[in-house]
Amino acid sequence: MEYKYGPTEYAGQELEQWMESANAPGCQIARIDLTWADISTIDWSATYSQGALPSEFLPYISELNLPADTGPDNVTSSPYRCVMVRKTAMRLRECLRWIGHVGPGVIFLDVLSRTVDSPVYVNEVTKAIYEREFDLRALRYVFVTCVLNPNTADAFKAICQSNRLENNGSKKLTWEASSSEFRVLLGTRIGKSVGRFVLGAYGQGVKRIARIAVYPDPFVESFDMRFDIEDVV
Q1: Is residue 101 part of a domain?
Q2: pLDDT, tens digit, 9 for 90 and up, residues 152-166
């Protein structure tokens, strides 16, 4: 089979199949068992606090009918949490960093980094953070903000060139599951991280990424991505 966007699209199709079918062969992504209690040990540094969302996230909250934020003047009543986690390895060298926000039904991944020798993965930390306070079964959206990863940016650029979307400006772009554009974005480094989170958190054939939205910014090179999580039916 020929793929419009090459091997990255194939990788995304494979992830899509694993999410949508408990019987799809080849998936070796283990269920995640890391918990917040594990993150509280000596070689971790973590802060978890109530806090207002950044103002640039508020249009997303409104668009998706998520619980309203209370704003910076009343952070103690905010339904959202600001989280920063660091994992250190030998000689106190940082091997993983996770900075973001979580709330009812949504995760915002703002800063993610991991060295190749880190004993834990970003998707494991994401699940542990979210489950500290919120019901994983009710999670509906995962945002990855300010995407600059070259692999992901190149895939989005290829989509825009192929579909003549270079002058789209700041208009949101959305692709449904099974489309070539959806699959190539899912097969990028950012997409695979979210896909592995879904598989590790729920297992095969339970939840799937149903669509991917991209929010371009005509004034900067980065963009925000949204992954919509739904039940497999």
Answers
A1: yes
A2: 999 999 999 999 887
Structure tokens at 213: 């939205």
CA atoms within 13 A on the CB side of 74: 7
The model's pLDDT over 12-41, given as tens digits with 9 standing for 90+, comes to: 999 999 999 999 999 999 999 999 999 988
Torsion on CA atoms 134, 135, 141, 145, rounded to nearest 10 = 30
**Which residue range forms the structural domain that includes residue 93?**
7-231
**1-33 burial, b for 16+ CB within 10 Å, e for fewer?**
eebebeebbebbbbbbbbbbeeeeeebebeebe
With respect to residue 1, please indicate whether it lies within any of the assigned structural domains: no
Name the pTM for this structure: 0.94
Q: What is the number of domains present in the chain?
A: 1
Q: Domain for residue 2, yes or no? A: no
44 pLDDT above the threshold of 70: yes
- Nearest in space to 102 (alpha carbons), one of 36, 187, 40: 36
Measure Cα distances from 79 to 5, 12, 49, 71 in Å.
40, 33, 11, 10
| Residue 224 in domain | yes
| Inter-helix orientation angle 189-202/122-131, to 10° | 50
Q: Mean pLDDT highest for which of 107-121, 197-211, 216-230?
A: 197-211
Amino acid at 8: T
Residue 166: strand, helix, or coil? coil
- Grouping H, G, I as helix, E, B as strand and the rest as coil, residue 8 is helix
